[in-house]
Each structure stands twice: as structure tokens, then as C-alpha cells.
Amino acid sequence: MSETLSPTDHDDASSPRGPSAAESRADSATAGPSTTLWSALSGVLAAGAALATGEVLSGLSKTIPSLVVGIAEIFTAETPGAVVRWSIETFGTSQKTLLVWGITIGSLVAGAILGMASRKRMWIGVAGFAAFGVVGGWAAARAALSNNALSWLSAILAAGVGIAVLRLLVGRLPFSPLPSGANPITGTEDRRVFLGVAGGAAFWALFGTGLGRSLRLGHSVEGARERIAADIGASPGAPGAAADAAVAGSLDSIDGVSSVITPNDDFYLIDTAIRKPQIDPATWSMKITGMVDNELEFTFDDLLAMDQIEEFITLSCVSNEVGGNLVGNAVWTGVPLATLLDMAGVQDGATQIVGRSVDGWTGGFPTEIAFDGRPAMVALTMNGEPLPVSHGFPARLVVPGLYGYVSATKWLAEVELTTWEDFDGYWITRNWGKEGPIKTQSRIDVPRSGQTVPAGPTAIAGVAWAPNRAVERVEIAVDGGDWIEARLSSDVSENAWRQWVVEYDAAPGDHTVQVRATDGEGDTQTSEVARPAPDGATGWHTIEFRAESA
């Protein structure tokens, strides 16, 4: 076994392979708990320094993901469908945040283990950090938005920093027994060096991580969004007279009910992107390819110059549980998808439209849906503003009546025409249903389940949605009694949700409320309970509340 010497190690004259100071100490006496802990700390600091280096290098270039993000993206891409479903159902919108934190903590724990192993066998720690660099480089280089060469270089540099810190620290472990006859002055100096390196590594781990994230803010395209907003005369808030009319006919005055238009900041977020693509609209374009007469390419300015439509459209995630909040209603503006497809000329037999994101995500839906009269569009604005980055800036697909997992391609790069049989989108390969129509749903917003309210007149209210079919009626049943028809907000669009309310005289005691909706085709929401997988949850939202006399 070859030995790796620290800067203060000296060759033993009697042996061509003299042990390092740390190894001599470990061999001279059984290491106590303090030595083990310091070894583990050395590994944690080395791992933290490596991760921070990756964060800084990532911040210097928008084409380099950090080590953590690169590995997280591989997890997202390769995790089996059953595990993905469990994670979404269990953690919801916190899924990706927890994944990143899990990888970070796992890396630090691995560093601690390597630190302890390196106390006697330095090569184990070196090999472990080198392996981490290889895995990180491979993961980062595979990402759709990454520069392969720079990603590999970043991972190698980060691993190198980790190895250097590990060797410096483990070679000078403090408070370990000195071998018989050793110079105590040398031991004191080792401790000083250890503490100095440890302090520097800790500082770099914290400062470098913060610096890297600050640098990434420099890649933001918020400035471009603001310029576009000024050019098109957009301003924050709901746009136009149609939105004003919707608000005027709403039930927004009821405390606790979801607003008729969901603000952009409150709109649900579900996607696979660990890094939200920062796309300059000045260089962006989208293509129409595949089974078309003419493959076309459109710039952002091209789309802005076309006739656009403005529609109230409710979007929902297939992972939404009955009564869940992964649903929202917004005013979307964009170019009709049918217009663009007509320009390209859809060929006979092209039965599927596939949306491709710049980060490689795909979703597909039947071609006929673009031509059946619903306002499917390449959306450019949301509630009067250019799309927020997290919602797909500069352009995305919005298709009423379909769950987002088959239709809502954010950061749109390409629309491909193909056959239904020849391609399966991202989530279809993970065993979700292929068609994905949004099911008629209703939700009770107030009272909240478990809430105590004053006895007497009580507003029971919420929202209901059936995009592309409209909501015709909402009913509630209290304590298993007869169905009571609710009063609805104005019908702004067959693609938008409607608020509803029932003024109920609540007697003192515990109460159970169920709600159901009937769509414009006369179909009433089923009571059959089903989980979100594989094509959307069903059942009646049920809550319990208590009424108490004053």
C-alpha cells in the first residue's frame, strides 16, 4: 500500500515507507472518541468545501449545474415511476427541495464516513472524493442545459478541493495520543494548522455556498421580463375588462374562499426542473417539426406580432388529491396553437402533438384537441404579465381540459407532430395514464376541516372546475342530509373554475359536509374514491367542522 504524506510528514530512515504523523499516533494507542469525532468532522468540512466550490463554479456560468443539482437532476430523470408517485403524494410541492437537501446531507454524511476511514487509510478518502467527483461530473454533463466540458471540469475541481482539505485535516488530527518520544511542539503545531484549516474550510463551505447562489442571480432573466412588460404595456395584476367583470361577479368577498383569479405568486408549481431555465427571449425560438408539410421556427417577436387570444383557464396537476390545492385559475394570453399548426400544415396520420421543453421534458396529447374549438395556445402572458420564469418564460403550452403532465410544456422549445403510438411523454414512461383529461372536481375552502365556527348562519364555500365542459351546478350535503344547491359566481369561461357558496344555519355540535359538482355535459362528479395515480383522483371532498354557541 502506498502512503500519502502530509506536508509535515518525514521519512523514517529505517523504512522507505515511513508512516505519517496521524498514522503513527493511531498505531501507538487506541483512538478515543475525540479522535473519531475529529476525523468525522474533517470529512464533513472537506465535503462542505467541495460542495461550496461546485456552487461557486455553477454561479459563474449558467451552463454548469452544481454537484448537488446535477445529481438531483439524475435522480429526477431516473427514479422509477412508483417512487416518483409516492414522493409527490407524500411531499407535494416540497419534493424537489427535500431532494436537494437530502443529497446535501447525504454528501456530508458520506464525507464524515470517509474522514473516519482516512485516519488509517488515506487512500480510501481520496478514492471516495474522486468517485464523488466522477459521479457529479457525469450527472452534471448529462443535463440538457449543461456544457459537458465545463461540467466535468467543475466536478474535478470541486473534488480536488475536497481531497486537499481532507489530507490537510486528517494529517494533523488534534487531541490524538502522541507516540512515545514524539516532539510535543510538533503536535502543537499540527493542532494549530488543523484548527486554521478547519476554520477556513468551514468559512468557505458557508461563504462559497452563499456566493454561488448570489452569482446565479446574475443569470436571471427578470430584466428581460420587465422590458417585455413595458413594451406590451403589461402591469402586475389581472388584465383587462374581462378580468374586471370576473372579479365583479365573483365571491371574493367571502373570507377564505379561493379568489376567482389566482395571483401568479400563489399559483401552484409542479415540474421536474431542479434549475428553472433562464432563457433570453432575444435568442429564444420554438420549432414546429415532425409530420408537417413545412417545418417552421418562430422567435418571440414573431409570436408577439401575431393575433392573440385571452382566456380564463384553470390548470390542475394530476397529483392533486381530492380537496387539494394543486389547481389554479389564471388569465392566459397567447397565440392559438391551431394557428401555428395550420401554418406548418399537419399531415394525415399525425395523431399526437408532443411539446418539448428546453430542459428535455416532454408531454403529448391528441392532435385533434388543438382543433376542437378549445383555446389551446402558446401562452406568452399570465394575468397580464409576461410569464414568470417558474411558469415557463418566455413561452409555454396551455391546453384547457388536460392535466399538466400531458400538455403543460413550460420553457417551450419544440412542438413535434407524430403518431399516438410512436411516442410516450415523460410521465407516460413512468406509468401515468396517456390521455390525462381533467376530471370534474369541487373543493370546500371554508370552513376549514376541523375549524370551530359560531353556531347560526355560516358560509360554506369553495370552488369547482371542469375545464372545457364548464361547471353548471354545485351541491353540498350536511350530515348525510339532502343535497343543497349552491349559489355560483359568474360564469367567465367554460374553462375556468367557479366559486360557490351555501348560507347554512349551523346548529351547535359537530358537522360533516360533502360537495359535488355537475359539469356542462350533465355529468355529476363521482363519489368513487380513487388516488391520483394513474390519471387523477376522484371522490367527494369531505370536511368536518364544529359549531359552538356564543
Care to give the gist of this entry?
This protein is an alpha+beta fold. Helices cover 36% and strands 21% of the residues.
How much of the residues is beta strand, in percent? 15-25%
Could you tell me the number of beta strands?
19
Major beta-sheet overview? 5 strands, mixed
Indicate the CATH class of the largest domain. Answer: Alpha Beta
Strand order of the largest sheet: 2-1-10-5-6
Give the CATH H-level superfamily of the largest domain.
Answer: Oxidoreductase, molybdopterin-binding domain
General form: globular
- Domain count: the total is 3
Give the proportion of residues in helices. 25-40%
- Compute the gyration radius: what is it? 30 Å
Query: Helical stretch count?
Result: 13
Structural class: alpha+beta
- N/C terminus separation: 81 Å
What kind of assembly state do the chains in view correspond to?
single chain
CATH topology of the largest domain: Sulfite Oxidase, Chain A, domain 2
Give me the CATH architecture of the largest domain, please: Alpha-Beta Complex
- Unreliable stretches (pLDDT < 50, length at least 5) are 1-32, 178-186
Mean pLDDT: 86
